[in-house]
Design brief:
By secondary structure, the chain is α/β, with parallel strands linked by helices. It has 22 helices and 23 strands. 32% of the residues are buried.
């Protein structure tokens, strides 16, 4: 595909290959190509999205051990014997695939899971292979009991040979040797015997020195021991062959499913490689865009240094088809883009960036941009760079025209067309006219077009033609340098004369060139330059407005956060106050019950008067408690604090005693068993109170109505903790009202509420007895409590 070559997609493939762990995936990476089927594009991108999330959330197990054992597996499936190294590599592959499968089981990644769903799990076979073989294929002693026994015998036989051969170098025969050493010949132990003593040593001559003065003899005793060793080694080799054959058979039994799994895991590796490349590029997954087109914000060319590249913002859309045979649709007001501006200003880079973004995204590879929206294209056509070919006798112009002709011949609606310097390489007037006709025809075919040009006629065409818009590469007129920033909506001046002056063309030459321009051309150049400056000022103003808006939004969010905190504090305070009230009411009910008990027991007028007085005091205590819970008004601190004075510390209800004179703004207060040093500003003197107020402070209660107590409560369908809370309140009210008995309806169910009810009644001091109701009154679903 011509577009892949001129857009340098091969470089993206190589970077993708660098992130592959398996040989199969690495080979496939060089064949990755974009899809032009909409559903396939989004499936590829969703796979990569899952891969990026998988990598970000956990460290995936490595697929590096998954080599390409397909040939070995095929051979094993047909009954062939494999080498130890091949078998170990297969076990390593099985282990790596199983670990990846286990990792993907832990989270929901349906698209990744498909690649490992049918991966074989044969841990016992893996363990047997790892226990039998070393990575280099060496068979371990533990591969079989017979092999372990033979190797032990082999070691003992070799030791006996060593001992016997060494005896010849240290014993009586030492004087017969030319050197007191032993050596090997043809795998046999020999001793160097002087030729003249050859007959004194019985054995087999294996070699003679070059001078003939020494013969190398294997003594007869050593020969017999060596033969025994050779026999053991033969049995060892036979056992090793048997072990490998057994393991090969077991591998062959799972070969078919393992081959399929290796191929699927290689596809998974390729998906993860795309995700890793996306992380490296700080890339994003494009979001769907209605129709056909691409919108890029903050796009960076993936092959350039991200630290220096200027981000690209651009929108390109395909126009509606205008084929007479199809329904005619009006093209969007902002469809194709014509880029103008100075040479070396970044036009070609902008075009290649858009092209690579489309090729990468439609191949399932994330793109390096802040926000990218994509409506997948049906084709990508590109004519960029010098298309000159000496072999085919083509000029640059001819090469361009041939590419464009091929595109027009096979163009589909929804194609993306990238044209660098459209119409260049020939007479300007003819080139501009031809370029305009080409652009119109491509638009008629329903293509999205991104083209660059220097022709003024095309700038005017893009300004007036429906479905086209101008864009310009910004140029800094002060520094005479391009900024490489694309400005949408207006054409840009070529700035050829200013650039020529910057690169050293003498001033008089530049002035003569200006004189050579017609007045109309000079006016147009000045107009374009003024328009560029106006746009720059507008962008600066918009940037400042955006900044102010962001600051306002930040302040608004901060205010909302503080309001939320205030609401939370208020709710917490309300909850604490409610708990305090509940506790106080509970104590009041218990105290009131005690008063009523005394009233029942006394049975005389004096007891009644005494009870009335107690109830009155209880009412006063409740009133004081309510007053304490009311919001406090700021109080003036007393400046006169003396030793022995009764005081209250802010935040504490208990009264303490000042045990030392205040000093340096602090005072020491004894509160019960605690002694505290606190600032004098947090201390308030407390006047002495009658003894009955101490009782009121200790109970800290409020009188609650007892007259309205009910004789029955329903706890069914309540949660256990709610039921226990309601039961506690009900019993307290019943005791306070002086009831003789009550009914608690808890239902049958699983018996949990019944158990809670009966345990509570059992430990309540005012409950004399309790029992389940008669069958006619609720049976096991009702408990009747009788009070003392």
């Amino acid at each position: 595909m011509h577009a892949l070559r001129v857009l340098e997609f091969e470089a993206i493939r190589k970077r993708l290959q660098d992130h592959c762990e398996t040989p199969l995936a690495a080979a496939s990476a060089l064949d990755v190509a974009p899809s032009f089927v909409v559903d396939d594009v989004w499936e590829l991108l969703e796979q990569t999205r899952e891969g990026m999330d998988f990598i970000a959330r956990q460290s995936p197990p490595s697929l590096g051990p998954v080599k390409d054992p397909r040939q070995a597996l095929t051979r094993a499936s047909k009954g062939g014997a494999l080498g130890g190294q091949e078998i170990f590599a297969i076990a390593d592959t099985l282990l790596a695939m199983r670990r990846m499968k286990e990792a993907l089981k832990q989270r929901e990644y349906p698209r990744l899971w498909r690649y490992v769903e049918f991966a074989p799990e044969h841990k016992r076979l893996e363990d047997q292979i790892f226990e039998s073989l070393e990575p280099d294929g060496y068979i371990k002693d533990g591969a079989s009991p017979e092999l372990a026994s033979l190797r032990q015998k082999k070691k003992s036989a070799a030791a006996r040979i060593q001992d016997r051969i060494q005896s010849y170098t240290t014993g009586p025969t030492r004087d017969l040797l030319s050197d007191p050493i032993t050596t090997m010949r043809d795998g046999r132990y020999v001793i160097p015997v002087k030729s003249e003593h050859r007959s004194k040593v019985r054995g087999i001559v294996h070699d003679t020195s070059s001078t003939g003065a020494t013969v190398f003899i294997e003594p007869e005793e050593v020969l017999q021991l060596g033969n025994a060793l050779r026999e053991i080694e033969g049995r060892e080799r036979a056992e090793e062959v048997r072990v490998l054959a057994t393991l090969s058979g077991k591998v062959g039994a799972i070969a078919n499913e393992a081959i399929g799994a290796v191929e699927q895991v290689a596809l998974l590796d390729l998906v993860l490689a795309k995700a890793k490349l996306g992380h490296d590029l700080h890339a994003t997954i494009p979001q769907p865009l209605q129709g056909t087109g691409i919108k890029i914000q903050g796009g960076r060319h993936p092959l350039l240094d991200s630290k220096i590249v200027v981000p690209l913002d651009i929108e390109i859309y395909a126009s509606g088809a205008s084929d007479p045979k199809s329904e005619i649709r009006n093209p969007p007001s902002r469809g194709s883009v014509l880029i103008t501006g100075p040479n070396t200003g970044g036009k070609t880079v902008a075009i290649k960036t858009v092209g690579l973004f489309v090729l990468m995204a439609q191949s399932g590879i994330p793109v390096p941009g802040l926000d990218v929206r994509l409506g997948p294209f049906t084709q990508v056509w590109a004519d960029i760079g010098d298309e000159q070919s000496l072999e085919q006798s083509l000029s640059t112009f001819s090469g361009h025209i041939r590419n464009i002709a091929a595109a027009l011949k096979d163009m589909k609606q929804g194609a993306l067309v990238l044209l660098d310097e459209v119409g260049a390489g020939t007479d300007p007037a003819e080139g501009a006219a031809l370029a305009r006709a080409i652009l119109v025809e491509m638009q008629r075919c329903g293509a999205a077009i991104l083209a660059s040009t220097h022709y003024g006629e095309l700038k005017a065409f893009a300004f007036t033609a429906e479905g086209f818009q101008n864009a310009a590469m910004e140029f800094d007129t002060k520094s005479l340098r391009p900024t490489y920033r694309l400005i949408m909506g207006a054409p840009g001046a070529s700035q050829a004369l200013r650039i020529a002056e910057r690169y050293g063309i003498p001033g008089p030459v530049v002035e003569k060139a200006k004189e050579g321009l017609g007045e109309q051309q000079q006016d147009l150049a000045r107009m374009l330059e003024s328009l560029e400056q106006a746009q720059k000022r507008a962008r600066a103003a918009q940037s400042e407005a955006d900044k102010k808006l962001a600051e306002l939004q930040k302040k608004d969010a901060e205010a909302e956060r503080k309001l939320a905190e205030a609401r939370e504090v208020r709710e917490n305070v309300h909850g604490k106050a409610q708990d305090a009230i509940e506790a106080a009411l509970r104590e009041i009910r218990i105290e009131a019950a005690r008063v009523f008990d005394e009233l029942k027991r006394s049975g005389n007028q004096g007891g009644v008067e005494k009870s009335r007085k107690a109830l009155k005091e209880l009412q006063e205590v409740g009133t004081e408690f309510a007053r304490e819970l009311a919001p406090k008004k700021p109080k003036a601190k007393t400046s006169r604090l003396e030793k022995g004075m009764s005081v209250r510390i802010d935040g504490y209800t208990q009264v303490g005693t000042l045990i030392e004179e205040p000093k340096d703004g602090n005072a020491v207060v004894q509160m019960g068993i605690m002694k505290m040093t606190v600032p004098t500003t947090s201390i308030e003197p407390v006047a002495a109170k009658p003894d009955n107020t101490t009782k009121k402070a200790q109970t800290n209660m409020r009188l609650h109505k007892a007259q309205t107590a009910s004789t029955e409560i329903h706890l069914r369908a309540m949660r256990a903790e709610d039921a226990e809370r309601e039961l506690e309140r009900f019993i307290d009210d019943a005791v306070l009202a002086g009831l003789d008995s009550v009914r608690i309806v808890h239902g049958k169910g699983e018996g949990i509420l019944r158990k809670i009810t009966q345990e509570y009644l059992r430990r309540h001091p005012h409950v004399r007895s309790h029992k389940l109701a008669d069958a006619s009154e609720g049976g096991e679903g009702v408990t009747v409590a009788v009070f003392r």
